[in-house]
Amino acid sequence: MFDLIIPFLICFPFLIAVILLCCGKSKFGNIVSYLGAVVIMIASVAFFVYKGVSGGFAFGQGMYVNTEIADYVILAGEILIVLVVTFLSFKYKRYWVSLLSILPTAAIIFQEETAAHEEIEHIYIDKLALLMIILVGVVGSLIIMYAVGYMEGYHNHHKEVQDRRNYFLALLFMFMGAMFGFVTCASLIWLVFFWECTSVCSFLLIGYTRTEEAVENSFRALWMNLLGGAALVVGIIVFYNYVYPTLSFRTFLMVIPQMTSFLGAVGMLPVFLMAFAALTKSAQLPFSTWLLGAMVAPTPSSTLLHSATMVKAGIYILIRLAPLMAGTPVGTFIAFIGGFTFIAASLMAVSQTDAKKILAMSTISNLGLMTACAGVGTAETTWACIFLLLFHAVSKSLLFQVVGATENSLHSRDVEDFHGLLYMLPKHAMFMFIGITGMFLAPFGMLIAKWSALKGMVDGKHILLILFIVFGSAVTSLYWCKWMGKLIAHPHKEKKVKDVTHAGEMLSFWIHGLAMILLCVFLPVISIYFVDPIIAGSDMFNANGAAIPASTMYILITILMLVFIVPLVLYASGKNDHSTEKLAYMGGINTGKNNGFVDFMGEEKTLMMSNYYFDKMLSIEKLMKPAQVVALVALLIILGMLGGYSIGGMF
Amino acid sequence: MISGKLISAICYVLFAPLIGGLIDGIGRKISARMQRRVGPPLLQPFYDLGKLLHKDPVHVAPSQNFFMMSYLFFIVMTGGMMFLGMDILMCMFVLSTAVMFLYFAAVVTGSHYSAIGASRELLQMVAYEPCVLLTCVAFYLVRGSFETAEIIKGDVSPIVYLPGVFVAFIFILTIKMRKSPFDISTSHHPNQEIVKGITSEIGSRNFGIYTLAEWYETVFLLGMVALFIINSNPWSILAAVVVIALVYFLEILIDNTSARVKSDVMIKVSWAVTLVAAGFNILVLIFFLG
Q1: What is the spatial order of strands in the sheet that A589-590 belongs to?
Q2: Which helix (H) or strand (E) covers residue A125, if one does?
Q3: Which residues in chain B have Cβ-Cβ distances shorter than 8 Å to A461?
Q4: Which residue of A has its CA nearest to B86?
Q5: Smallest CA–CA separation between A476 and chain B, in Å?
Q6: d(CA A300, CA A55)
Q7: Contact present, B122 and B270 (Cβ < 8 Å)
Q8: How far apart are the C-alpha atoms of A475 and A352, rounded to whole Å?
Q9: Chain B contact present for A556, CB below 8 A
Q10: Is the peptide bond before A567 cis (omega within 30 degrees of 0)?
């Protein structure tokens, strides 16, 4: 019975989406969304627990060999996607974009129809898939719960945007359904369908407000992601016709290592094309701009794109490909692009004052780190990659939600306006603080993952990646620290802020905060029972033993927990300490509130403090183009190498 | 073996302030002589600390007290971990956490001098962090472990393989010790443009805690210098002490002969030195080891 949960998880969100679309403008949609989100969360957790109890997570399981009806549904879905894209491309006069959808879909349908019939599994559940299910299920559902409350505040605040909130929520559900399908499917045809599905959902989400900017940005997201989809399709066709005639993703992963020994570059071409597709989806350079543009949409969509879904779909594929890329030129170039994105995006993040832009740049930069880890493709770095994915999803989801809720109350998302947020919206400031610590500080696991990543890269002697990481992490600390400083800074002026945050949003914050602490405490357990076996699996590295010895990890965790506990203890014990309060030194006479002074004319002046941004040196406008060129050149080189060898090899 | 590590860690916690204070005293004396002054007594730092700790505690924001205590705790922990023979990279992560608390203690006050100093402290961190991490990586390449207990066990001193890294590390040591020309976040004399920078609003007992933390940090940093020298031969410890003395003298000399630079110059120069000296060194190392 529990095995039915997979089709349920894929279909149920689509069903809810259809119901929501039928709801029109009624408030009924809110209840449906809440219920849908709760059901999805419970189903994914139940499935996870069931798998753990019944089999100790010990096995991979293939299912659904005969899926004729489902195949037709998917075929219809593919055609529907093409129609939607074509219609919108013509409506907004970007005709060429439709070609990126029509041609690959035609090619893949042709491939599917002409392919010899084979008995393959269409759904495959292993630990990595399970991990993704629980991540998408829990984080995604929380985002929807948050979205219901958020859209209420959003439409009160933005009267100019047409209220289509049920349509928005429906898209979020579709997105989740597509993600569930994407991480569980084992058929390359299905993979392409769910891939295109997430691309189109994100396109529609970004274009929600229908402003000129939104349309512009949504089409950028669309063509970049469709380009990735096209690469995926070409990769599959090359694989089927020149490497091994199967449409099973599992077989794909198994045979490539064996085939490359005598096929050479042709064998690596599908891997590269698939990794290329992952780069577009994970917003790596030169494709980073679509994720930045995605911010025009209401916050829940950014949250969904940045945390558990969409960009993580790319990383998921890269993790699957990691063993195939290890030690190959493809892996080296993918890792280079990842490492380069890591440092370039963190430099650009320094110059931003818009909180959502900082978060976006940080997402791109962290995805870069994950890409680099997957590209290096050793057991150690893949371990790091999985943990980075896990921690980043939770922290980033929390951060985006808190920033969104703060914006609704404060009517600004400029970090400079967050000055003294602790005194205006204490709960928001606290959760923001937790989220930021989760991104780069002890005690949260991001740090251990980074440690492991660095170690793996030193072991692999990747000097360039090491340099990218050490310089990049210094810069990362800078932009997070100065943000944290703003939150606790002494306020310039007394400002009353009306907190319009809904109970549902608050609940989501609390669950996220709790999840982060639990993830941190149980990191060794997760590693030993879950991530290590993924690494040790026969389709990954077949390596026995953990990437990091358990003893090392316990020591690390103990130390990191100290970092968490000691300040709390010191805070509690120091509360009743006798200490006299003094006024700060202001140069002039302090006005008595520590936020201004009396100048020599006897006038009161308020002090305004601002952070360093280096916006002349590090602005996105200045750095993005050159960075894109570097990454593009790297891509062209490897494509040229593979293409040249493949064509040479064929004759 | 474990007890040996434990003893060295306990010794660090107990005696590092004594050594750090003495080093500070000697430093002041040498500085004074370079400026043709007599200088304070050798034990003056201890008298200063005693007085600070006996003063009535003051604060500008109440949370400062707990931030400063956390700062001290994590600095002690950083050094403790190193002398316990643990992972050097983790030490550095804990050290950055410590710096964060100092930053918080300065930024909560609302004083602009303190806030500017705090922002500049972050810039200093950006300037030295890559080199510090690369140093850890370099030790790992030479010894195959991040653990200090393993790093000191080799037959040959790591400096033989890592001359470039050593140069870069000495360079950023000036930044880490907040000595001129890189006394960006704070200054020796309160009559300059940012008053005392990051420590402007840290007074009486809290300043005592700051001083104490600085001594612990000095011993920790000089311990890092020693890691370049020490090998399995016991005499190497003596050599390490000599090198430390020379390095410290050099730092004082630089401090006394240079004027403060702008923060962006600091970042550019230190990154360039890190890339050229440490990066090139590691590149050569990988080439020959791999």
Answers
A1: A589-590, A596-598, A604-606
A2: strand A123-125
A3: 286, 289-290
A4: A555
A5: 9
A6: 36
A7: no
A8: 13
A9: yes
A10: no
A123 forms beta bridges with A63, A185
Cis peptide before B163 (omega within 30 of 0): no
Which residue is closest to A461 within chain B, CA to CA? B286
Distance, CA of B290 to CA of B284 (rounded, Å): 10
Q: Is the CA virtual torsion B122, B48, B195, A570 positive or negative?
A: positive
For B98, nearest residue in chain A (alpha carbons) = A563
User: Measured between beta carbons, which residues in chain A are less than 8 angstroms from residue B93?
Assistant: 442, 447, 451
Transcribe A252-306 into DSSP letters: HHHHHHHHHHHHTHHHHHHHHHHHHHHHHHTT-TTSTHHHHHGGGS-HHHHHHHH
Give me the residue label for tokens 């392409």.
A192
Q: What's at A634, amino acid-wise?
A: A
Distance CA A287, CA A340 (A): 13
For A61, other C-beta atoms within 10 Å of its C-beta total 15
Pick the residue of A342, A416, A450, A563 with the most B CBs within 10 A to test the interface with B by mutation: A563
Tell me if B200 and A441 make a contact (CB, 8 A cut-off).
no
Which of A463, A583, A607 is facing B112, going by the closest CB pair?
A: A607
A335-351 pLDDT, tens digit per residue, is 999 999 999 999 999 99
Radius of gyration of chain A (CA): 25
A253 token code pair: 């992963």
CA atoms in the 13 A half-sphere facing the CB of A183: 30
Asked if residue B181 has a cis previous peptide bond (ω within 30° of 0), the answer is: yes
Tell me the pairing of strands A596-598 and A604-606: antiparallel
Chain B partners of A609 at a C-beta cutoff of 8 Å? 110, 112, 115-116
Domain containing B147 equals: 2-289
| Tokens 């995926």, residue located | A232
Q: What are B198-248's pLDDT values in tens digits?
A: 888 888 889 999 999 999 999 999 999 999 999 988 899 999 999 999 999
Alpha helices in A56-126 (DSSP H): 68-91, 95-114
Q: How far apart are CA A414 and CA A352, in angstroms?
A: 9
Q: Which of residues 474-493 of A touch B (CB under 8 A)?
A: 474-475, 477-478, 481-482, 484-485, 488-491
| Residue in A closest to B89 by C-alpha | A451
Domain ranges across chain A: 326-573
CA angle (A277, A283, A284) in 5-degree steps: 85
Q: Which residues of B touch A579 (CB under 8 A)?
A: 57-59, 62, 65, 205
Structure tokens at B98: 């410590």
Instruction: State yes or no: pLDDT of A155 exceeds 80.
Output: yes
How many structural domains is chain B composed of? 1
The predicted pLDDT at position B111 comes to: 85
d(CA A172, CA A16): 10
What does the block give as tokens for B219?
Answer: 């011993």
pLDDT in tens, A422-478: 888 889 999 998 899 888 876 666 778 888 888 888 888 888 999 999 999 999 999
3-state secondary structure of A63: strand
Long-range pairs, A346-350, Cβ under 8 A, ≥24: A346/A472, A346/A475, A346/A476, A346/A479, A347/A475, A347/A618, A347/A623, A348/A618, A348/A619, A348/A620, A348/A623, A348/A624, A349/A475, A349/A476, A349/A479, A350/A475, A350/A478, A350/A479, A350/A613, A350/A614, A350/A618
What is the interface pTM, i.e. ipTM, of the complex? 0.93
